[in-house]
Amino acid sequence: MIPSSEEPSRLPATFLIGIVLVLFMVGGAVLWSHYSVPAANEEDKPLTVGPEEQAYFSQIHFLDPKMSRAANFLNQEVTYIFGTVENGGNRKVKQIEITLEFHDPFNQVVLRDRQRLFLPSTPPMLPGQQRDFQVPYEHISAEWNNVYPTIRVSGLRLE
Questions:
Q1: Which residues touch 157 (CB under 8 Å, ≥6 apart)?
Q2: Is-above-0.70 flag for pTM?
Q3: In whole angstroms, how far apart are CA 132 and each of 48, 72, 103?
Q4: Which of 103, 85, 67 is nearest to 156 (CA)?
């Protein structure tokens, strides 16, 4: 008999190494996505308020308050809060953060919500300038007294 010079096939070993590598990468991706902390979006962070911004709060005025309700495409009622904001001071305002409070008949707060009025790409609001704003709400407590909410400035970014 002539000895065989053929080597055993390396396909099973290579295949197993490939499976182990794929499982290792998938496991690492799952662990990374589960334990990593998402970076906070700039729009989600409250605006920092220093003494300069806080002193300027009194220069921001809310005019012509309006409210309406409409049904959306899912036949859910949406409440829209409208108004006009005015920069009554002498500085440019890049961003305004407001806090809206909805009350019940006993004047207790049933919903408190923080909203930014402008998109990051919006040009600054010049001194004396007015801009319309609109804030939609799909879910407001049934205990709400249906009166226009209290609006106050809670953050400001001056330019």
A1: 47, 53, 93, 94, 95
A2: no
A3: 24, 22, 23
A4: 85
